[in-house]
Amino acid sequence: MNGLQWQGPGPWDPFREIRREVGRILGNIESLGVRFARPFPAINLYDAGEQYYITAELPGIDPQEIDLTITGETLTLRGERRRPEGASDECFRRQERPFGRFGRSVTLPERVDSAAASAHFAHGVLTVTLPKDAEARPRQITVATPG
After folding, report:
1. Helices (DSSP H) in the chain: which residue ranges?
2. Among 22, 13, 65, which residue's Cα sits nearest to residue 41?
3. How far out from the chain centre does Cα 131 lie?
4. How far apart are CA 56 and CA 46, in angstroms?
5. Which residue among 13, 56, 113, 131 is the one 20 to 30 A from 20 at the CA level?
6. Which residues touch 28 (CB under 8 Å, ≥6 apart)?
7. What CA–CA distance (Å, rounded) separates 40 from 56?
8. Sheet arrangement for strand 118-122
């Protein structure tokens, strides 16, 4: 067969190509000075062995107004970024952080012990600690032999 053959590294993955093209297109749009304000906070989720940590950027938000819930393997973060008093839309010359209510749900990689979960807020960053569920952790099983 004489035709076009895949020349990239590894096997051809159409989804990898779509992600690469979307990233290229969005990168070109941002290089033109067009930015899209995200209505939800940026989040990092990382595995620290016995627990997961989620950090969320929430500058200017009153921690008393943050609503965190865990249902099954989904953590949901809700809140509201309030506009400064007396500042109308016409006052802003540049606005990169949107105002208003936001909500974001994150599917966790595995079950967590929701009763032992904790959260703290410092310097505009919310950190949620989610211990892994003991039932979901890998464990060694002893193989019994007769006699």
Report:
1. 14-31
2. 65
3. 17
4. 12
5. 56
6. none
7. 10
8. 43-47, 51-57, 125-131, 118-122
* CB contact at 8 A, 103 and 76: yes
What per-residue confidence (pLDDT) applies to 39? 74
Give dist(CA 24, CA 63) in Å, integer: 37
CA distance linking residue 95 with residue 55, whole number of Å:
23
**Single-letter code of the amino acid located at 5:** Q
**For the segment 55-90, what is each residue's pLDDT rounded down to a tens digit?**
999 998 999 999 999 998 899 999 998 888 888 878
What are the Cα distances from residue 127, in Å, to 3, 117, 124, 130? 53, 11, 10, 10
Structure letter (DSSP) for residue 29: H
Element (H, E) at 101: strand 100-107
Distance CA 108, CA 115 (A): 15
Supply the pLDDT for residue 127.
Answer: 97
Query: Can you tell me whether residue 77 is helix, strand or coil?
Result: strand
Torsion of CA 43, 49, 50, 52, to 10 degrees: 0
Helices (H), 2-97: 14-31
